[in-house]
Amino acid sequence: MAETGGGEKIRVAALGDLHVSEDAGLRYGEMFAEISERADVLVLCGDLTNLGTRREASLLAKDLESLTIPVVGVLGNHDVESGKAEEVRRLLADAGVAFVEGRGRTVRGIGFAGVRGFGGGFGRGMLSSFGEPTVKQFVAEAVAEAVRLEEALWSLKTERTVVVLHYAPIVGTVEGEPREIFPFLGNSRLAETIDRFPVTAVFHGHAHHGTYQGRTAKGVPVYNCAAPVAKPTGRAYALIEV
Questions:
Q1: Is residue 78 within 8 Å of 52, Cβ to Cβ?
Q2: Is the pLDDT of residue 89 over 90?
Q3: Is 221 in a helix, a strand, or coil?
Q4: Structural element, H or E, at residue 104
Q5: Are 92 and 65 in contact (CB under 8 A)?
Q6: What is the pLDDT of residue 202?
Q7: Beta strands across the sheet bearing 11-15
Q8: Domains and CATH numbers, the chain
Q9: In terms of DSSP H, where are the helices of 47-202?
Q10: How many CA atoms lie within 13 A of 116 on its CB side?
Q11: Residue 44 pLDDT greater than 50, yes or no
């Protein structure tokens, strides 16, 4: 694993797709307390709420009080469902989440950069900007998210850099999902951006039935941290030293 100049290894816990809802009855305070004991930083990979409501965000904010370590994160597609993304973001930011969507932040000597991302497919199957205006709009959103990620990565000057996404940047970590929905789980433009920078690790969610680990074309490790995905910790969250 990479180390800081002082030789310190940083333990990063990563978790996505909590889908906190008003009626599920699930609470995460105990898990966050456990994470605080095992990790130095927590990364949240989107779909933190189920419908993106104020009430759901407030429930999660209450559970986040159990954390005693820094938290960085991005929102997911579920978090924007109700058109209240800014309110959800504000409530969670007030609870201590430092959002890295389109910007870089340095925590414990590590640079974190992220975006939500978008669909579009992978490799030769990636959707191109051709044909109907609606197709072009779809591709434009994917391109815009990749550009935002690039801008965030350019802003960081740290020795180690971690990318935080909701959508997947590679096909390897969505394997296990029905192939018919691969184009809606992420896109290769994100990986192309990542591979232009000295990125240490990438965390994402969204693909609940995907694969835990893969790599970009240039070998950057990518971790699918969606809560339902089986991980070496045996827990809903991943734990990686960087």
A1: yes
A2: yes
A3: strand
A4: strand 104-107
A5: no
A6: 98
A7: 97-99, 71-74, 41-45, 11-15, 238-241
A8: 11-241 (3.60.21.10)
A9: 54-63, 85-94, 133-154, 188-194
A10: 17
A11: yes
